[in-house]
MBL fold metallo-hydrolase
Amino acid sequence: MVTGFLLFVRLSALAQPASRITILVDAFSQSPTLKQDWGFAALIEYDGKRILFDTGNNADIFAFNTKALNIDLTRLDFVVLSHRHGDHTDGLRHLLKVNPEVRIYVPNDEYFGGPTPMGFFRRKEPTLPAHMRYFNGKVPQQIPHGSPWPQKNMSRIDSSVQINPNITIVRNLSKERLFGETPELSLAIRTTRGQVLVVGCSHPGIEQILSSIGAKENPVRLLVGGLHLVQTPQAELERLAKALREEWNVTSIAPGHCTGEGGFITLQQVFGAQYQYAGLGVQIPLP
C-alpha cells in the first residue's frame, strides 16, 4: 500500500509540466559541444506552455543547438521576437521549416540589419573566467547579423498583450536611449512567488521595462536576458545594479547576451548568491 502510494507520488511528479528557461543561443557557455554565437534565444516552459523567445543570429547554429539540447521545435505554443535586429531573428529560417504554422509575435516595426558594432566588445574583463566572457575572450573580427524576418504567421504588436492570466507580452520603446526608439517586446510571467521577466536587449531601458510591469508594487522574482550595458560607464553600472535590487525589487538576476562583461561582473558583485549564471545551454528553474 505504502509502496503504491510512493509510486503514485513519483509518477505525479514526473507528470508535472516543466517550469524552466533553457538558453539556446548566446556568446558565452560552459558547454564544450554547443556552438556560441552573438545573439539570443531561449525556450520558456511554464504553466503548460512552451514559448520560444527570440531565435538567435544564425539559423544553422540555432538548428544545431536546439538539436543538441533535444528541443522539439514542433511543440511550441507561440514565438516572441523581442525586436527587429537580426541577431534575434535569423533562426526563423530554420524554425519555419520544421514548424511552418507556429504563431509569431513581433513588434510592429521594420527589419534592421548590419554587423554587430565591435564597440560592444571594447570593454573586456579578463578577470572573469572564460565561460563568462564573449566567445571565451576571443571575439571574431566581424559578427554579421542574420536575415530579415519573414511575414508569415506574424502577429504585429502595437501594445502589450495578455496571452493568459499568467503570461503577458509587454511592449516598450523610448526616444531617449540608443536604439530605444526600436519597439521591443518582453515576456512577463506571473508565478506564485512573484513575476519573472524575460528580456531580449532592453533597448528602451530595463528600468522602463520594469516600470511597465509594475515591478515596485509586484516584485520580480527573476530577471533573465540581455540588459544592453556593453558600453555603459562603470559608475552607471553600479548605480543600476543597486537600483535593480533595492528600488525595483528584483530578487534574482540571470543576465546574458548584451549585458556585457562589465555588467556581468558588477551584477554578480551586487546580487551575490542571487546572481544566476545564464550561459548557453543552461536551464534556469522558474520559481
Observations:
- Residues 2-15 form the longest helix (14 residues).
- The chain has one domain: 17-285.
